[in-house]
């Protein structure tokens, strides 16, 4: 099997598991306990926080460990918007892009349903980019928060985050970015990006599912969503997932340490794969931005097929990929991301996403490109769509 669905999840890396192991077994203490076992756990947690802070270029106290990317997005959207509204009731709008993950989109919709916020959706161009002009057009004096993802999970388009954050700040508005797909591939220095909050998930990086983090700038007020014993400086109560935090920090440090090198190598492999698919499959369309895209995602539409049928045929040939985001899998509705790019629903339904981790090889992608040619031709000739 060739696994080309790394944007959905990745296996736990050996070094990550080794780093976590002591805190799942002998060093199993609760970081809040005042005895040696508890102190050891607290020290491990502090070490994980410091490692993450070193990667992000922030202070350790600005890192909140969460149960994953979804919780980090919820905490950013709801936590910042509600804290701002509590201080200034006239702030009752949030801005999100048209291509956000449901964790951001649904958090904004919750604010709309239960807290009287209006949601302004900034459109993207045909490549999936939010331009500063498009963002400027939706900012209002009542905007409490702007959230635009760093890189898209379905088409891989990378946003001009520093420019967008600067624009939001020029209007006095805090800026959050969902960097779940960007982590490991793109620079994550939060000062250079200029973001006030940034979400990261462990399982996209070789850490286990169920661990993630939110960077929140120290001056940014945040209303907690999970109340209890006041862990994570009161921003996220609950006994900390010490092993998860250690795993997350280890995975992030390993991935970002090789980020620049991996970015170039994998981007070159991705470009070769894209060329092979576009030249080998008549009618194939690359979705997303031609160059401003994650090294790890190649996404296409194959008009005249069904994405699900192509996917099944590819799996039969040993190639595992996705028809869109894992979250939308199984749903018949065309992807809202692809329709936001202006693709007709009938074309959006033919989407197939190939996503890689750093272990991908030229041979993997050559085999995948050959399989795509026969799978698409097979589906078209059988008319199985
Ligand atoms: N944001 C993006 C862009 C994602 O791709 C994902 C996962 O698919 C998430 C958020 C959610 O992260 P998690 O699976 O850790 O909850």
Low confidence ranges: none
Q: Describe the global form.
A: globular
Helical amount: 40-55%
Distinct ligands, ions and cofactors found in the model: pyridoxal-5'-phosphate
As laid out across the biggest beta sheet, the strand order is 2-8-7-6-5-3-4
In CATH, the architecture of the largest domain is: 3-Layer(aba) Sandwich
Largest sheet: 7 strands, mixed
Look at the helices and sheets and give the structural class.
alpha/beta
Strand content: 5-15%
- CATH homologous superfamily name of the largest domain? Type I PLP-dependent aspartate aminotransferase-like (Major domain)
Number of strands: 12
Radius of gyration: 21 Å
Could you spell the SSE succession in H and E letters? EHHEHEHEHEHEHEEHHEEHEHHEH
User: Termini separation (Å)?
Assistant: 25 Å
Total discrete domains: 2
Count of helical regions: 13
CATH topology of the largest domain: Aspartate Aminotransferase, domain 2
Instruction: Indicate the mean pLDDT.
Output: 96
What brief labels describe this structure?
385 residues; alpha/beta; Aspartate Aminotransferase, domain 1; Aspartate Aminotransferase, domain 2; 7-stranded mixed β-sheet; globular; binds pyridoxal-5'-phosphate
Q: How would you describe this protein?
A:
The chain has 385 residues and is of the alpha/beta class. The chain has 2 domains: 2-8 and 259-383, Aspartate Aminotransferase, domain 1 (Alpha-Beta Complex); 14-257, 3-Layer(aba) Sandwich (Aspartate Aminotransferase, domain 2), CATH 3.40.640. Helices cover 43% and strands 13% of the residues. The chain contains 13 helices and 12 strands. Helix 6 links the parallel strand 5 and strand 6 (175-178). Pyridoxal-5'-phosphate (PLP) binds at residues 68-70, 73, 101, 103, 149, 153, 178, 180-181, 201, 203, 212.
């Amino acid at each position: 099997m060739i696994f080309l669905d790394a944007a959905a999840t990745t296996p736990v890396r050996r070094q990550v598991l080794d780093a976590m192991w002591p805190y799942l077994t002998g060093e199993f203490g609760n970081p809040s306990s005042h005895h040696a076992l508890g102190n050891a756990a607290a020290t491990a947690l502090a070490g994980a926080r410091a490692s993450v802070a070193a990667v992000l270029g922030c202070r350790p106290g600005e890192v909140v460990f969460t149960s994953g990317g979804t919780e980090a997005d919820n905490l950013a959207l709801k936590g910042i918007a509600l804290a701002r509204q509590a201080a200034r009731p006239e702030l009752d709008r949030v801005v999100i892009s048209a291509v956000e993950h449901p964790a951001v989109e649904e958090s904004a919709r919750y604010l709309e349903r239960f807290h009287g916020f209006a949601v302004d959706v900034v459109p993207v161009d045909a490549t999936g980019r939010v331009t500063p002009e498009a963002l400027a057009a939706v900012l209002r004096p009542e905007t409490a928060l702007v959230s635009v993802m760093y890189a898209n999970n379905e088409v891989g388009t990378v946003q001009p985050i520093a420019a967008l954050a600067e624009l939001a700040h020029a209007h006095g508005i805090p800026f959050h970015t969902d960097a779940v797909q960007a982590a490991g591939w793109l620079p994550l220095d939060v000062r250079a990006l200029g973001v006030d909050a940034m979400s990261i998930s462990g399982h996209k990086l070789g850490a286990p599912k169920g661990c993630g983090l939110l960077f929140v700038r120290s001056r940014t007020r945040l209303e907690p969503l999970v109340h209890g014993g006041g862990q994570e400086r009161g921003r996220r109560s609950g006994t900390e997932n010490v092993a998860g935090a250690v795993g997350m920090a280890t995975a992030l440090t390993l991935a970002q340490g090789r980020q620049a090198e991996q970015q170039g190598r994998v981007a070159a492999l991705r470009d070769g794969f894209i060329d092979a698919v576009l030249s080998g499959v008549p009618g194939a369309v690359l979705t997303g931005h031609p160059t401003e895209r994650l090294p790890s995602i190649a996404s296409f539409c194959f008009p005249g097929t069904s994405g699900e049928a192509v996917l099944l045929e590819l799996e039969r040939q040993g190639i595992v990929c996705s028809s869109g985001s894992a979250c939308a899998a199984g749903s018949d509705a065309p992807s809202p991301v692809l329709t936001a790019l202006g693709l007709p629903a009938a074309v959006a339904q033919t989407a197939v996403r190939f996503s890689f981790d750093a272990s991908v090889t030229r041979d993997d992608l050559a085999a995948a490109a050959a399989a795509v040619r026969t799978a698409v031709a097979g589906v078209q000739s059988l008319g199985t769509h």
